[in-house]
Amino acid sequence: MEYDFEDAVALLARTPATLDAFLRHLPESWTRSNEGAKTWSVFDILGHLIHGERTDWMPRARMILQFGESKAFEPFDRLAQERDSQGKSLADLLDQFALLRTESLDQLRDLNLRPADLARHGRHPALGVVTLSQLLAAWTAHDLTHLHQISRVMAHQYREAVGPWGKYLGVLQCAGHSSPA
């Protein structure tokens, strides 16, 4: 499937409501547990998504449009949520993510991107030359990656409780997800 702006925005717009419906009011045993040392909980993943809204997707899109390949993106701090989410509740993070995502998509729509804009190049500090459409497609796949990760982290909490059914539950067989950009 090739990148389609309207299809991508339709998915990106649904992520906050999906997370809200799935996670709000769950006990912390579901949202604060992880898969072991140096892994993220649902709370951490949500903090990561918030940090991406602030510092990654739209700032990088604007950089591509303003500077092209002449200026590399700022490196992304994959652990910023550890400090940024301190003292907040899951409800706070869900509300913040929904607000930031709405603002991001409003800004994206306001760019009135044309096919020539989507083909414009930028420079990722590790990946090299990328296009705006690749960045926007990655944003969409990034949401799906973390929706998958949230399901996997939560299912992990019952890995022993399911007993022999574990061998039939694909979410318990998944070894992880790709490294985020």
UniProtKB/TrEMBL annotation:
Residue ranges of domain DinB-like in the record: 12-150
Organism from which the protein derives: Candidatus Acidiferrum panamense
Record protein name field: DinB family protein
